[in-house]
Amino acid sequence: MHAMQYEFTLPADYPMDVVRDRVARTGHLLDDWTGLGTKAYLIRERGRDGSPVNQYAPFYLWNTLEGMNAFLFGGPFQRPADDFGRPAVRQWTGLAYAEGDAAGVPARTALRRRQPAPEGVPIAEWAARAARTAEQFVEDRGASSAAVAVDTSRWELVHFALFAEEAPPVTDGEVYQVLHVSAPERDRLPRGRQW
User: Fold this and answer.
1) Beta strand extents in the chain (DSSP E only)
2) pTM of the prediction?
3) 172 has a pLDDT exceeding 90
4) Could you state, in order of their start, the residue ranges of all structural domains in the chain?
5) Overall fold of domain 2-193
6) By CB count within 10 A, which of 12, 69, 128, 131 is most buried?
7) Mind listing the pLDDT tens digit for each residue in 115-127?
8) 11-90-85 Cα angle (round to 5)
């Protein structure tokens, strides 16, 4: 599993209905994309859920590098890059993925939390502990699905969870509104720890 996200931070007075309309028109285009586990079309609005910015920030979980590369380099990524500018695309290696009972229910909110690896903790111990948090998000925090991944160039974890509720029960990270989820190969995302 590979996690990926890019962010378009928009002006404070940007009409976010433009992004909502765009996703309503084009979100279905990845509903059958080969190699894609899930794509959550996410926005944050300035002043809502503690967000200081207006932002369009889709988050992806890929089953294959070929699917991800076909998206990035085969044409579809060019449309948002043309419209909003070419963003930095963050990528993380998957550590764990879990689903709860509400996995098939449409997601309404998402939570993303990034954190650096602590100093002085053995890497294997840190990774195992981090991987368990995917299950904890599902079991203890009510997420419909959750993923944990790592960027080893920065030794940074990303926790990502989808919730069926309009307001997630936890807010210890960036809270997003979910406009659409494409999940053509969600059933192929490997469950549990990824090593």
Assistant:
1) 2-6, 8-10, 36-44, 54-56, 59-62, 89-99, 109-116, 145-151, 156-163, 174-182, 192-193
2) 0.95
3) no
4) 2-193
5) Alpha-Beta Plaits (3.30.70)
6) 131
7) 999 999 999 999 9
8) 40
